[in-house]
Each structure stands twice: as structure tokens, then as C-alpha cells.
Amino acid sequence: MVDISKRRFFTRKNIDSKQIRLPWVNELQTFTDLCTRCGKCVGACETGIIEHADGGYPSINFTIDECTFCYKCAEICPEPIFNNKDSQPWNAKASITDSCLAHKNVECRSCGDACETMAIQFKLRLGGVALPEIELGECSGCGACVSICPTSSISVSNL
Ligand code: SF4
Ligand code: SF4
Ligand code: SF4
């Protein structure tokens, strides 16, 4: 028997709207009401990035790997939680902090090399190495740039 009141507790207290849940899940409030925390998506994820997070609800951890948008988490889920595969998976975008090596004048382009959509562009500047900038319109929120960064300077969150 599922304890709805406990789910609502986590809905109100523990769910950060910027936290990455799962692709194709857009209604976070509905998600915590409908998800039974069965863990089927955790086992189905081909890159192993889905973890049981707060309250046992699944959540994405990009420090492990990227999302390939394979849709397996949605396919295996027995609950009516996921949107159609043709729709946009999420509004997640990457951002880079000042701890990036390039901000310390150390040449690094690992994130740019990892980005399939070429959303990370390096802008030349006088007196320093080129700085990475993210073209938000091109970023799919796949997270491929997160685990590759040697200084953990990149995070992906919902806009
Ligand atoms: S779409 Fe695929 S890679 Fe992305 S979270 Fe779901 S199962 Fe994992
Ligand atoms: S991989 Fe990390 S340290 Fe390297 S340029 Fe990108 S954000 Fe900076
Ligand atoms: S999240 Fe994916 S698409 Fe966005 S900048 Fe990083 S690697 Fe590129």
C-alpha cells in the first residue's frame, strides 16, 4: 500500500524544481504522486545514471555519465508519468562556473570535445586562454560535459 501522505511530504519539502528528475517527465508535482519508487527505470537506464534520490524517487546523476535519450526509462515505467517520445525531453541546460580551468588561464577544451551538439563554444580573449560559453539554444541537457570536466565546473539543471 502506497502512503500518499509521505509522497506529498516529499513533493512539498524535498523536491527541488531545478533538480533533474527523468527525461520526458515535466510535471514534477504529478511525478511524486504517481511514481511508486519501484526502481524499474534505475535498472533500465543504459548509461546507469538514474539513482534513487530523496525519498527513494529516481533522479539523474550526471557525474556518472550522460543521458542518451534512449527512452528506456519511460518505456519500462508502468505508471502514466512520461510524455510521448516525440515531445521535448526536458528544459535542462548546462552551466559553467568560474572554477573552470580556462578561467585560471589553463587550456582545457574537454567539455567542448564531449558536446555532440557543439553547444559549447570557446571564445578567444586577449591575455588569456579561450573561455567556454554555452549556447543554450543548442544544449540538449544530455550531461555529457559534466563527468568529463576535471574540475567539476559544469552542472545541468532545469531552467
Ligand atoms: S533516456 Fe535512457 S539514458 Fe536517459 S535517463 Fe532514460 S534510460 Fe537513462
Ligand atoms: S571541461 Fe571543465 S575545466 Fe575544461 S574547459 Fe570545460 S568547464 Fe572548463
Ligand atoms: S549538456 Fe550536452 S548538449 Fe549541453 S553543453 Fe553539455 S554536452 Fe553539450
From TrEMBL:
Residues annotated for [4Fe-4S] cluster 1 binding in this entry: 35, 38, 41, 45
Main location: cytoplasm
UniProt entry tagged with the keyword Metal-binding: yes
Cofactor dependency: [4Fe-4S] cluster
Domain 4Fe-4S ferredoxin-type: 26-55, 56-87, 130-159
Gene Ontology cellular component terms for the protein in this record: cytoplasm
Family annotation (Pfam families): Fer4_7
Binding site for [4Fe-4S] cluster 2: 67, 70, 73, 77
Entry's localization field: Cytoplasm
Top-level division of the source organism's lineage: Bacteria
Keywords for the protein's UniProt record, in alphabetical order: 4Fe-4S, Cytoplasm, Iron, Iron-sulfur, Metal-binding, Repeat
Binding site for [4Fe-4S] cluster 3: 139, 142, 145, 149
GO molecular function: 4 iron, 4 sulfur cluster binding; metal ion binding
NCBIfam families reported in the protein's UniProt record: napF
Record text on subunit structure and interactions: Interacts with the cytoplasmic NapA precursor.
Function: Could be involved in the maturation of NapA, the catalytic subunit of the periplasmic nitrate reductase, before its export into the periplasm.
Family statement: Belongs to the NapF family.
Protein name: Ferredoxin-type protein NapF
UniProt organism field: Vibrio qingdaonensis
